[in-house]
Amino acid sequence: HNVADRSGFGEPHNSLLLEDKDMIGVRKTVCLAAVGLLLLGSPVLGAVTVGFDQTDYYVGYGETFDVNIVATFDIEMAAWGLDFNIADDTVAWLDSFAIEDPPWDPVVSPLAGFLLGGLSFPTCVGVGTHTLATLTMTAGSDFDPLEMSTDIWLSYDDEDEGFLDCYDGLAEVYFEEATIHVPEPASLALLALGGIALLRRR
């Protein structure tokens, strides 16, 4: 990833929001619309390591399973936006996802150029390791090898994506990948036959 130093926003993000308690809905709308602009114009201040709750997932053919996206912050964070990538979506594919709420409000906006996004309002999310979202996936394989696998990773390609800290700084992001391993159905049948043969020999 490439993170460029940018300037233009120096006040805490809460200063962008209306102060009237009766205007919470409007405040959220304003903040959602501003997330992309904040990420465009923010200097780098903090750092984030983001990846998954496991580095290797071993799942059965046709199995539905969950993958949690986790991130470690070294500074309080206000908002984030990421893309999810899978190398081979015939080995496993994304069925649905849910942003961890609370503490994150899912970001759904015409300005959002990312698949996954969250906003913490009005309080930022503190330093430490946090779950961002849960991906629900299904495993499958139509190929001949005894085991298929595919890599999954997170990224951001646009300037309006990434992690925004509580002081309008665009954090530097370190990504960690994971691998999904799926046995091919024919191999499972061979293993079963081999087990039966061993039992008969006994």
Task: Describe the structure in brief.
The chain is 17% helix and 39% strand.
> Shape, please?
elongated
Number of strands: 12
Radius of gyration: 21 Å
SSE-based structural type: alpha+beta
Flag low-confidence runs: 1-34, 187-194
The overall pLDDT average reads 74
Tell me the distance between the termini.
57 Å
Q: State the helical fraction.
A: 10-25%
Order of helices and strands: HEEEEEEEEEEEEH
**β-sheet strand percentage:** 35-45%
Query: Helix tally?
Result: 2
- Main sheet: strands, sense, barrel: 7 strands, mixed
Oligomer: single chain
Please tag this protein with its features:
five-stranded mixed β-sheet, 2 helices, elongated, disordered N terminus, alpha+beta, 202 residues, seven-stranded mixed β-sheet, single chain
